[in-house]
């Protein structure tokens, strides 16, 4: 009985999720053509490609649930990798990595100051801070890719856990579980939903709305930075161009997953699937050797389609005769 | 000899002494003194703008008072915040209910106190117990967005109980309740009183004040006019004190202008409506009565083209018309004064002028630009003819009182001279004086040849103003009455089905 209820509570929303259905549809379609899609090598590569975006998206989900968004994550991701790689020549690797993540926290703190404390528009502010950070990245690297001194750094993301699972995927799974628990079962997480669902209500219920919302930006900066460390390790290179398309893609994936820009609804499982959809789609299209231009257009069509279908179902539900 | 302080503490839960509050240009509260005894229901009445809401916001800590003393439960309270007030045992249930729609009932009750409630499981068990205490059987896992207004109110009351409230202030709690739901609320208030909880009950509806309250305080223009036991006041006295002038009657004389059939609706069916047929005559005020959710608003939405319908035929002046959306409805001469003034009726952040002229904008175009002069002329004409109290036509609508906001909407539609004016709860949240003006306006509209469909939860209003009454129950028309020959009871019988 209890189990059934839990299945209903957790499973039902996922099953109705358009992103989930689309992912399943692609996976089913890919059974038929003769491609390298269903090889263990390709599937691991698929997850590796998704992993970094997922890490970024977990933090973004927090800000979106609180009724905000964060477009500075792409540059933050670049910056943390660059900082870690530059520092690595002078200090132990783990300190360099922590410094990279700390840079994300600082950026999140600044974003939070403007958005939450000074009550400005998150979209424009994070777009602006993102541009600033990108400039900093270019300055630090002279806009050239840089390589780490420490040969161990590349193992951080690419090393194998249990002999088969790349570390980056393991880290993503651990973070996913942690963030899910954070949102679902802690006071902080529930307060995020309350703030996004009704800011004034949360305020008058004694929730420290400023602190909580501010915190989401700090966390979001930190996940972006952690993602950046992972990406730089994966590629064994730091570069200022990594984050160019990331921010929009991740924010978009979060919304496609089912976390509403209006705030108050959504969650980590939805985000995980929303982002996974993009990776599955891209990988499938690569396996089918579809031209990159068509790929780009297809991704756009899928985004529009899913958001439209979501709104259409709601509209139909309200108007049904 | 005066009673000493400690004895006074035990008598009064709340003492407000000489509290003042000014906003730029307005003295919202002017030396207000109110004493609320323990375990009583204390009514506060007054027109909009009398200062009731300001006083409540000072008590809850949303505003800070300029001067004066507030003593709650024997403790002098200088500055407070909403959460401190709650923890002291003072809860306010606002008119616009304060719940997070996207969260569950249980989580809303313990919002921000997740740890205190011992996690998710504790939250739901405790919330369930509180709801049972007030005889309410909502599942605490339900999303608040799925609840009816009265259920949401119960959740708010349960939330107040969860703070061990000693005083619960209810601001216009009945404004969206049906009679049945109101009875439920009466019972809950009775139970709360039994538990020794004091209630401050703010309402425009004098019937409720007389039914429920032990004491009543009358406010006007930021002052307390009178405060006495309800038994020492008559209805007329109360109204006179509220408005500061004598109002002879609450309603003007019923207009009699009914002519030939104007609007005929045949076979209207939607998801919630079944086989609706009715006729509206020229110069008629047709009252629609029903419980919230019975389908009153749905009928209007369907005729107006806002909802999908099947198999309906609408005839105007005997000719069949196709209405696919509000635009078509307006074209054939309908206009809607919606139920939710602030959400559906007005653009609050815009000026009086913009709000009045927005329906007739295409008539104020010169070349490709808007004709500012004619817009201004129209707005000024309606402000004058409807006696809209506003500093000027450029003032923002949000700063006007409810009655004057409503008049802006009526003015907007009068400009396009509709044949049929549909008014959904036109006097909700409007004070007695302004209500009378709205009634006069309705009378004038039908006398000038218009027709009105009036939807209202206030039975007295429908009985006094309309020429004919239709009762709606479960999506069907359950009866038709002549308001001059029918008793309230026989109408209620049909309303309840």
From TrEMBL, chain A:
Keyword flag Manganese: no
GO CC annotation, single: plasma membrane
Entry's transmembrane regions: 20-40, 71-88, 94-116, 161-183, 214-235, 255-281
Main location class: membrane
Keyword Membrane: yes
Gene Ontology molecular function, alphabetical: transmembrane transporter activity
Pfam assignment, any one: BPD_transp_2
Subcellular location: Cell membrane
Membrane topology: Multi-pass membrane protein
InterPro entries: ABC_transp_permease
Keywords of the record: Cell membrane, Membrane, Transmembrane, Transmembrane helix
Name recorded for this polypeptide: ABC transporter permease
Protein's organism: Anaerosacchariphilus hominis
From TrEMBL, chain B:
CDD domains: ABC_Carb_Monos_I, ABC_Carb_Monos_II
PANTHER family noted in UniProt: CARBOHYDRATE TRANSPORT ATP-BINDING PROTEIN MG119-RELATED, D-ALLOSE IMPORT ATP-BINDING PROTEIN ALSA-RELATED
One MF annotation (Gene Ontology) recorded for this entry: ATP binding
InterPro entries found in the cross-reference section: AAA+_ATPase, ABC_carbohydrate_import_ATPase, ABC_transporter-like_ATP-bd, P-loop_NTPase
The keyword NAD is annotated on this UniProt entry: no
Topology in membrane: Peripheral membrane protein
Pfam family, one: ABC_tran
UniProt keyword list: ATP-binding, Cell membrane, Membrane, Nucleotide-binding, Repeat, Sugar transport, Translocase, Transport
The protein's name in its UniProt record: Sugar ABC transporter ATP-binding protein
SUPFAM superfamilies: P-loop containing nucleoside triphosphate hydrolases
């Amino acid at each position: 009985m209890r189990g059934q209820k839990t299945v209903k509570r957790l499973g039902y929303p996922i099953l109705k999720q358009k992103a989930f259905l689309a992912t399943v549809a692609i996976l089913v379609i890919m059974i038929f053509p003769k491609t390298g899609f269903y090889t263990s090598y390709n599937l691991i590569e698929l997850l590796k490609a998704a992993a970094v975006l997922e890490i970024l998206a977990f933090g973004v989900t927090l800000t979106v649930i609180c009724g905000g968004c964060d477009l500075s994550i792409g540059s933050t991701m670049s910056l943390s990798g660059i900082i870690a790689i530059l520092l690595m020549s002078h200090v132990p690797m783990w300190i360099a990595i922590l410094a990279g993540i700390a840079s994300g926290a600082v950026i999140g703190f600044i974003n939070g100051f403007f958005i939450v404390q000074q009550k400005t528009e998150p979209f424009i502010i994070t777009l602006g801070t993102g541009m600033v950070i990108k400039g900093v990245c270019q300055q630090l690297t002279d806009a050239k890719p840089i390589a780490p001194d420490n040969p161990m750094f590349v193992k951080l993301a690419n090393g194998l856990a249990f002999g088969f699972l790349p570390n980056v995927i393991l880290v993503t799974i651990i973070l996913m579980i942690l963030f899910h628990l954070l949102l679902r079962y802690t006071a902080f997480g529930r307060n995020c939903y309350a703030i996004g669902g009704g800011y004034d209500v949360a305020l008058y219920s004694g929730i420290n709305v400023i602190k909580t919302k501010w915190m989401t930006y700090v966390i979001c900066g930190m996940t972006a930075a952690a993602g950046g460390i992972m990406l730089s390790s994966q590629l064994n290179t730091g570069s200022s161009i990594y984050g160019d398309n990331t921010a929009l893609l991740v924010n978009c994936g979060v919304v496609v997953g089912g976390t509403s820009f209006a705030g108050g609804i959504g969650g980590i499982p939805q985000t995980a699937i929303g982002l996974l959809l993009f990776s599955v789609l891209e990988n499938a299209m690569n396996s089918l050797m579809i031209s990159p231009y068509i790929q780009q257009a297809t991704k756009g069509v899928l985004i529009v389609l899913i958001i439209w279908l979501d709104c259409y179902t709601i509209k139909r539900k309200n108007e049904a005769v | 000899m005066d009673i000493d302080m400690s004895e006074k503490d035990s008598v009064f839960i709340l003492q407000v002494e000489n509290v003042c509050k000014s906003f730029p240009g307005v003295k919202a509260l002017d030396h207000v003194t109110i004493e609320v005894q323990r375990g009583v229901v204390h009514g506060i009445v007054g027109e909009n703008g009398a200062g009731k809401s300001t006083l409540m916001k000072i008590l809850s800590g949303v505003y800070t008072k300029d001067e004066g003393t507030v003593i709650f439960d024997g403790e002098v309270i200088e500055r407070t915040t909403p959460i401190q007030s709650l923890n002291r045992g003072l809860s306010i249930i606002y008119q616009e209910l304060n719940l997070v729609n996207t969260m569950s009932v249980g989580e809303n009750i313990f919002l921000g106190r997740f740890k205190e409630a011992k996690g998710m499981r504790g939250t739901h068990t405790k919330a369930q117990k509180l709801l049972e205490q007030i005889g309410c059987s909502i599942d605490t896992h339900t999303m608040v967005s799925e609840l009816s207004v009265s259920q949401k109110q119960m959740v708010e009351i349960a939330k107040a109980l969860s703070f061990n409230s000693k005083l619960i202030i209810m601001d216009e709690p009945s404004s969206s309740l049906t009679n049945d739901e109101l009875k439920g609320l009466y019972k809950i208030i009775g139970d709360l009183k039994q538990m020794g909880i004091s209630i401050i009950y703010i309402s425009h509806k004098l019937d409720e004040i007389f039914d429920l309250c032990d004491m009543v305080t009358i406010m006007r223009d930021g002052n307390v006019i009178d405060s006495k036991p309800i038994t020492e006041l008559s209805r007329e006295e109360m109204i006179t004190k509220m408005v500061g002038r004598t109002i002879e009657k609450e309603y003007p004389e019923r207009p009699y202008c009914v002519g030939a059939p104007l609007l005929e609706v045949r076979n209207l069916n939607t998801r919630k409506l079944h086989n609706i047929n009715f006729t509206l005559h020229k110069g008629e005020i047709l009252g629609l009565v029903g419980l919230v959710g019975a389908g009153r608003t749905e009928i209007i939405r369907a005729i107006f083209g806002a909802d999908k319908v099947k198999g309906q035929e609408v005839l105007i002046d005997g000719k069949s018309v196709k209405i696919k959306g509000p635009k078509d409805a307006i074209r054939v001469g309908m206009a809607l004064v919606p139920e939710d003034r602030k959400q559906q009726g007005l653009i609050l952040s815009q000026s009086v002028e913009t709000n009045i002229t927005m329906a007739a904008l295409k008539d104020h175009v010169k070349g490709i630009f808007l004709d500012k002069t004619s817009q201004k002329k129209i707005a000024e004409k309606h402000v004058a003819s409807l006696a809209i109290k506003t500093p000027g036509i450029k003032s923002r609508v949000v700063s006007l009182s409810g009655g004057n906001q409503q008049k802006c909407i009526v003015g907007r539609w009068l400009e396009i001279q509709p044949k049929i004016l549909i008014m959904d709860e036109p006097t909700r949240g409007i004070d007695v004086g302004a209500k009378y003006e709205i009634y006069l306006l309705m009378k004038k509209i039908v006398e000038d040849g218009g027709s009105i469909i009036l939807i209202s939860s206030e039975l007295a209003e429908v009985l006094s103003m309309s020429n004919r009454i239709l009762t709606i129950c479960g999506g069907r028309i359950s009866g038709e009455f002549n308001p001059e020959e029918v008793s309230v009871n026989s109408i209620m019988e049909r309303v309840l089905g």
